[in-house]
Design brief:
The chain has 13 helices and 27 strands. The chain is of the alpha+beta class.
Length: 584
């Protein structure tokens, strides 16, 4: 049972002298919800009888701002809805637009929402709040996560943790779960969709896999409803916030009514009619099916069958749509659970985690990274350092070396993706490690460390072994990744797995061949006098054959010639060693 806080300034005694208090905030696309731990339980904060603050902002030309319900009242100014979606679109977090003389961005608008929520929380609790756990979609990339933290900082909130939304829901449900079996969180909000498979075990709540799309949610259902009505009347409705809110209201009515009437003014005329739940279900079916495709991706990653799941939990206000409930039940062959309020459960989990981070807890939470991270090596090959679905926080290191004699700098190209070649992955960052001691190729040792913190943010460090020369970069990419593209990338990785591996093996063979040729040609330039004419000619011919084969792009041609040259050069290497010993 959820406790209710009704009056400002009447916070129970436990928080009156607690200087380490923190709240949980579910920063949603359409609504924002907050909670706090009280007497060992999460309490959803309420204003009157409402727990949902509309994530709406109205910007005025004089610089004034209205947030929440006030923003939705008819007025002058620019109404901004669903700003959370702009956190993941290309340069949207940094892109600006001007209202009056004030420049706004997704970050600064989100900061206004958080500032308003912070003030409302402080009004209810009767004390200042400076720290919070804020939830984000599991598939928010580094750019979107960083933008969220920046918005919180502007609002005067220190972010203790960015917590993935389905994981937060699992934390809320996990308080009352006694089963040790895996379960699924199906989280469909106003603008994003996530699914996570989790497994509790002896105080550890482990995320086995996660998948999602930050451009799929209830807003898309609203758009489908608008298109349906446009088709019924052979017209085009204006793309305004008011029309979007009108469509959202119709959708919500269809969650508990079979047929509803509608009416809207359009160019001095009114269009009206009736809309059935069957029509709406047909309009959103492609979107519902898309969520199930993402569910199957997450299940494949766990190697579990649906029968092995103990339960499926519905999270997010959009899961109230009857078509969603029916589709999930049919897909998993079990009735989904939603006994905690779908609109509030994520905030509850955030509140629990906020309490755990400030006052301790008996449960350890292990979240995961959704897409593999690696770097480019010679030949454009991707070397994965942290594989997808690795629990975070995590630190992984690998040692690399130089390719050219006397090489004093090494470029580290950090990439994200599941493909084998760098051209098929997403570039995150590049930096150069300089002042490497000039040594023969292959002798310098550079340790590259990937560190992902609990918020899912990546730091990459490269360090040369002998001099401790170090360079690092925090990966906060300028370009966010569209999550539809991310899902397409995962599907592409599976589709091209065999061809990608063939490309990788070919490039590895070419890199090894070039390394061998370089080493042999250098050795011959120094010690060819150790060979008789026949042996020297044999090595030169074998080298020429291998060089020619590199243009064929045929691994079956290159590999035998490389192995042959390595075999022929073996005796030469032994002679060089013996000669060096005699000279010493």
């Amino acid at each position: 049972m959820l406790l209710q806080i009704c009056e400002p300034g009447t916070t129970p005694t436990p928080h009156e002298t607690d200087d380490n208090i923190a709240v949980g905030i579910d920063l949603g696309t359409t609504h924002t919800v907050a909670s706090i731990m009280m007497n060992g339980r999460p309490v959803v904060l309420r204003w009157g009888h409402q727990s949902l603050i509309p994530s709406a902002v109205r910007l005025f030309e004089n610089g004034d701002v209205a947030v929440g319900e006030d923003a939705l009242k008819p007025n002058d100014g620019k109404l901004v809805l669903s700003i959370k979606r702009s956190m993941t679109n290309s340069t949207a977090p940094e892109a600006t637009f001007t209202v009056g003389h004030v420049k706004w961005s997704a970050v600064t608008i989100t900061a206004q929402i958080l500032k308003f929520v912070k003030n409302e929380i402080e009004s209810v609790l009767g004390r200042a709040i400076h720290q919070a756990v804020i939830t984000v979609p599991a598939y928010f990339d580094d750019a979107a996560r960083t933008a969220t933290k920046q918005a919180a900082q502007i609002a005067g909130i220190h972010v203790l943790r960015l917590l993935n939304e389905p994981t937060a829901a699992a934390v809320a449900y996990g308080m009352n779960m006694h089963s040790q079996n895996a379960f699924a969180i199906y989280d469909l909000g106003g603008g994003t969709f996530d699914v996570s498979i989790l497994k509790p075990s002896e105080g550890v709540l482990r995320v086995l896999s996660t998948a999602g799309d930050t451009q799929l949610g209830g807003d898309d259902f609203d758009k489908a409803l608008i298109k349906l009505i446009e088709h019924k009347h052979n017209t085009t409705l204006p793309s305004t916030p008011q029309v979007k809110l009108w469509a959202r209201d119709l959708k919500q009515q269809l969650t508990h009514k079979k047929t509803i009437p509608y009416e809207i003014d359009l160019n001095d005329t009114k269009i009206h009619g009736d809309l059935s739940v069957e029509e709406f279900d047909a309009a959103i079916k492609p979107l519902v099916d898309k969520t199930l495709t993402i569910v199957d991706q997450a299940m494949r990653d766990t190697k579990l069958t649906k029968d092995q799941l103990d339960s499926v939990i519905l999270v997010g206000g959009s899961t109230r749509v009857p078509a969603i409930i029916k589709a999930v039940e049919a897909h998993f062959s079990k009735s989904p659970l939603s006994y905690l309020n779908p609109d509030e459960v994520v905030a509850m989990g955030a509140g629990i985690q906020a309490g755990a981070l400030t006052h301790g807890a008996n449960t350890v939470l292990l979240d995961v990274i959704p897409i593999s991270l690696g770097l480019e090596t010679m030949g454009g090959i991707v070397e994965k350092i942290i594989h997808r679905n690795t629990s975070i926080p995590t630190t992984q290191s690998q040692t690399f070396t130089t390719f050219v004699d006397g090489q004093t700098a090494l470029t580290i190209h950090v990439v994200q993706g599941e493909r084998e070649m760098v051209n098929d992955c997403r570039s995150l960052a590049k930096f150069t490690l300089r002042n490497i001691p000039p040594k023969p190729a292959g002798t310098a040792k550079i340790t590259v460390t990937f560190q992902v913190d609990a918020d899912g943010l990546l730091t990459v460090t490269a360090e040369e072994e002998t001099t401790s020369t170090k360079q690092s970069v925090e990966v906060n990419p300028t370009f966010g990744l569209n999550e539809e593209e991310m899902i397409a990338h995962l599907e592409s990785a599976m589709k091209h797995a065999q061809s990608d591996m063939r490309k990788r093996l070919l490039e590895e063979a070419k890199v090894e061949s070039k390394r061998l040729i370089q080493a042999l040609e250098k050795a011959l330039s120094l010690d060819s006098c150790l060979l008789d004419a026949a042996t020297l000619s044999q090595l030169q011919n074998a080298t020429a054959d291998l060089k020619t084969s590199l243009d064929t792009q045929d691994i079956d041609t290159i590999k035998p010639l490389c192995e042959n040259l390595e075999r022929l050069s073996h005796s030469f290497a032994e002679k060089r060693i013996a000669h060096a010993i005699r000279q010493s």
